[in-house]
Design goal:
It is a single chain. Helix content is 39%, strand content 20%. The chain is built from 17 helices and 16 strands. Helix 1 packs antiparallel against helix 11 and helix 12 crosses helix 13. 44% of the residues are buried. The C terminus is likely disordered. Bound molecules: zinc ion. The site of zinc ion has 5 residues, from loops.
């Protein structure tokens, strides 16, 4: 029995989320994400639109083989096109053939759409909604009715919009979802419109918000305040244009701040890793500034903030980061004082509170490296290695003693690079070569190839992001470059930095740090670590 403060969470990452630019998921990707969403406790997973493409049809066939613990799979589609021909409508047929326990079906709530794009009279539109819902419901599915463009339709003609909701209600829809399809409605309007709809509609109401006014999360929460019991959104807010309402923010807000309960409440500490997992599968660089799950969400830089959180984290944090599986980060820069260093050392189990000399010397070292062009803000793993080395707790696991890189262009302008390396590990010397589509790629491959024999744990490491910044550009060719590398082993991410006059050398420094860091963490798992 669900409590009356229970809010149903409906995830549409696999349907609306894949409408994002530059995102494309294979069937295997979709199945992997389905599994993760189920483990996390999502109530409904909208898997796709079987009427729109064969890949989604295939997904619905394969998803049946997964043994899901909690989630109901849902197929998405539109109402039928002709009121006289509901049962044989192609889209409706495909929805039924998907054999999902739930179906979400959308209909028009804005006359602009029903009239202009479908050429329907009000009565015809109403009939289509009623009959489509009724027919699907008779086939024993849970019906989630999405009232497309509801808020715009309501503002245009309230009677029309409500009449269409009533058609879905009479057809037997289990949930009626008010959609802000164009994403431009503000939270106050959502609250007012929702509250007034509740007076005419008895069925449970839901919200589906888009983020074009950057208010999708706020709108979803306001809808809940006004009585919504079903919230739709996507992981990390992926979706068409500016995206959908971000479930990674909605879920913790509902559970931690609004006295509501969702099916994920026991798994909240998996939220950050779920967010990274979906980024990884979608091949997206995680947004550091994402609320709750971003790397910067609990990051402190200024010295005063740091000395305060050392006393009590509530001073600068809205929740305890571990509640959502995130962690506090303290970063080091020329703004930092000795408390940042002390904090970092404490993370590794070193108490420096008495060792003022060390902290002072180390802050001095960091500041002079920053003057040289290093930046540790985005490269915490390099910083950790530096601190541990200074504390005699770390020595590099290998030494690159020789590097040669050839870059070749053929007559068609195609680039090809080859890296030759000699790496010393203990007393052994490994001599390898590898190629790649560019010098850094070749270097990265050769380095990992050379070390694989000694440290098989580096096998799954890959580069997630690679950034180059030219420093003091005014000096022309004497300019330095800073390379930032973000690496992942599929589960965790860490970032490292290199600085040199030469881009290859700077890249090699950052790659060296990245591999050393991973080996260190694998070899000393007992150590409490900072950003790994
Ligand atoms: Zn949508």
């Amino acid at each position: 029995m669900k409590q009356n403060n229970y809010i149903e969470i409906f995830d549409t990452t696999l349907r609306d989320g894949t409408q994002s630019e530059a995102i494309s998921l294979s069937i295997q990707d979709k199945l992997l994400i389905t599994q993760k969403l189920d483990e996390f406790g999502i109530d409904f997973i909208e898997g796709g639109w079987p009427g729109s493409n064969p890949r989604d049809e295939e997904y619905f066939k394969k998803v049946k083989a997964l043994s899901l613990k909690h989630a109901h799979i849902c197929a998405f589609g539109s109402t039928a096109r002709d009121p006289k021909n509901i049962e044989r409508d192609n889209n409706i047929q495909k929805l039924l053939k998907s054999e999902t326990p739930a179906i979400s079906i959308f209909g028009k709530s804005w006359r602009l759409h029903s009239e202009k794009s479908l050429g329907l009279t009000d009565d015809q539109n109403e009939e289509l909604i009623y009959k489509s819902v009724l027919f699907l419901k008779k086939n024993g599915r849970k019906i989630i009715y999405d009232a497309e463009h509801f808020f715009d339709g309501y503002k245009d003609d309230k009677e029309f919009a409500i009449k269409m909701l009533k058609a879905a209600e009479q057809g037997g829809a289990d949930v009626i979802v008010l959609c802000d399809t164009n994403g431009g409605t503000l939270s106050g309007e959502v609250f007012d419109i929702f509250s007034s709809v509740r007076k005419s509609i008895d069925s449970p109401l839901g919200i589906h918000a888009h983020n074009d006014g950057e208010t999708a999360v706020a709108n979803s929460l306001q809808a809940v305040v006004a009585g919504a019991v079903h919230v739709q959104g996507t992981i990390n807010g992926f979706g068409e244009r500016c995206g959908n309402a971000n479930l990674c923010s909605i879920i913790p807000n509902l559970n931690l701040k609004m006295n509501k309960k969702t099916g994920q409440v026991r798994n909240l500490e998996k939220l950050t890793s779920l967010s990274h997992y979906v980024d990884e599968i979608m091949n997206q660089v995680p947004n550091n500034r994402a609320a709750f799950v971003g790397k910067s969400a609990f990051t402190h830089k200024g010295g005063i903030h740091v000395s305060s959180i050392l006393k009590d984290n509530r001073m600068y944090e809205h929740i305890v980061p571990a509640t959502v599986g995130n962690r506090q980060h303290v970063i080091i820069s020329d703004l930092s004082g000795r408390s940042n260093i002390r904090y970092k050392a404490q993370e590794f189990g070193f108490d420096l509170s008495d060792d003022k000399e060390f902290s002072k010397k180390f802050v001095g070292q960091i500041k002079s490296m920053e003057y040289e062009g290093f930046q540790f803000d985005g490269a915490e793993a390099s910083f950790e290695l530096l601190l541990l080395a200074e504390l005699n707790e770390y020595e590099p696991f290998f030494d690159v003693i020789y590097t040669k890189i050839n870059v070749m262009f053929n007559h068609e302008g195609h680039k090809y690079a080859e890296a030759v390396l000699k790496v010393k590990v203990g007393k052994d010397i490994e001599h390898t070569a590898a190629d790649g589509n560019g010098p850094v790629n070749a270097l990265d491959s050769a380095l990992r190839k050379a070390l694989m024999r000694f440290y098989p744990e580096i096998k799954n490491i890959h580069l997630v992001d690679y950034k180059v910044r030219v420093l003091n550009e005014r000096n022309g060719t004497a300019a330095k470059v800073r390379v930032l590398v973000e690496s992942s082993d599929g589960e965790k991410m860490w970032s490292t930095v290199g600085v040199s006059h030469d881009i290859i050398e700077a890249s090699l420094q950052a790659l060296n740090d990245s591999l050393n860091y991973k080996i260190l963490k694998m070899q000393k798992p007992g150590k409490k670590v900072m950003n790994y």
